[in-house]
Design goal:
mainly alpha, Sodium/glucose cotransporter
Amino acid sequence: MIINTIDGVISALYIIAIFIIGLWAGIKHRAKNQHGGTAKEYFLAGKTLRWPMIGLALFATNISCVHLVSLAQSGFDSGLLNGNFEWMASFTLILLAVFFVPFYLKSGVSTLPDFLEKRYDRASRDWLAIVSVASAIIIHIAFSLLAGGIVLQTLFGVNMYYSVIAIAIITAIYTIVGGLTAVVVTESIQTVVLLAGALIMTVAAYHKMGGWQPMVNVLEQTHQMEKLSMMRPHGDASGLPWYAVFLGYPILGIWYWCADQTIVQRVLGAKDENHARVGSLFCGFIKILPVFIFVMPGLFAWALYQTGQLNIDTLKTLHDGKEVVNSKGIYTLMILQLVPKGLAGILVAALLSGLMSQISGALNSISTLVSYDMYQRWKPDAPDNKLVKVGKIAAGASLVFSLLLLPLLNQYESIFNGLNDIIAHIAPPITCVFLLGVFWKGASAKSAKITLYLGSLIGIFVFATGKLLPNSLIGHIPFMIMAFYLFCVCVLIQVTTSVIFPVQHTAASNVLYWRSPFESLRSPGWAGIGNYKFLSLALILIMSVLFWLFR
């Protein structure tokens, strides 16, 4: 089954519209500034971003084609379980808003590696810059391109690599020309389109199923009621029991939401601290939605398949003589079979929104990192126009390298699990040095450098061992638990080496840690419902109720 002409035209018009809007927003913003704008105008939108745009851009940069495709796949395979990655993010965004934002803005940094240099030393900055660029290429761009390629191939019958190359080039042009302003403006539009498309799919699946109760009846009849549970018991076949979620996710989440340049760059471009804080919390509230509009449709699809209302024959393959379902393509099958003509085009536009917003955000972050944390160190007196030029070249080169990684990453059975498996081995040392650096006065520069170097090497060794020797002890440890173990090792390394090599604070580093966690709450914030303290408490209460309901 291939998507019809009307929906294809809608999808094409959407791509053209985003391309034009992105170019227009970036060029218009630059025209307001002398000589086309400074480097900060290009990379950080001149620090003019307000909270709604920050929240929408954070969500759009996070939610990509990977999430639309793979969360539906996970809903089909294991129910609501992987929704934990979405809801736990809300707690991490509270940490970003309350504890990390003040330091990032107070230090006046353009990148997070720059922050590490102010808190620790230059070596820590260099290491994080390299890791951040690599992770942006692999996690934010390559995986998104892979998911997008699968979708486009299924829907349009076109070669996966040709289609993603075309989309990537279009996105790269307006991102490279317009900088962060173009990225944030297009991401705000794409978030709305993405959410609208996801809602259409959810309603379509719900309507086809006949409501919530018929789906529950199917789960009861097939003895699969655990698919509605997000808190699984010890020994669950998924390898993701409740304690793995609460121990492992914070390690991944703090790196992703509080210490990853691709995400935090939107916060660094905030007009002021209150806009940065409320924008982060706004994103936390939006993160409630993915379980219902990204994961739930996959669960409905599973129930529809069980009742014969969804044909998945095209996803069935033989593996070791047994028929298995390759559920990577379940979302596209739902578009083709459940959504009326015309509306399917909006669904495709939503998928493309996720793909384009993820690529644009990552490219802008890579260009910022390379310009400020690599090139400017080599050429400290480089003019702004040179920094911007180097950043554009870096973005283009990163895109090419991401495309070359697609065949390798396509070997993962589950895109979402493959993505988080890699993050679980990258995040622990970075999460460790950021947490201890912000909350512990005694974290020394030497200890941070040793922890980043040694922790990263241990993570690479563990990852390689698990893949080369899957039947070994390491190979049997679920990635979320492994992330927690690696984090504990990194904390031990940094605390021990901080004792051996005591901290010697500089004037800059001496103001970049909290004397007490309550110190972060001294800022009064806005009055009324927009106060960051009120919003943080409200978000905690809402998430606690939701976890209780789907325990």
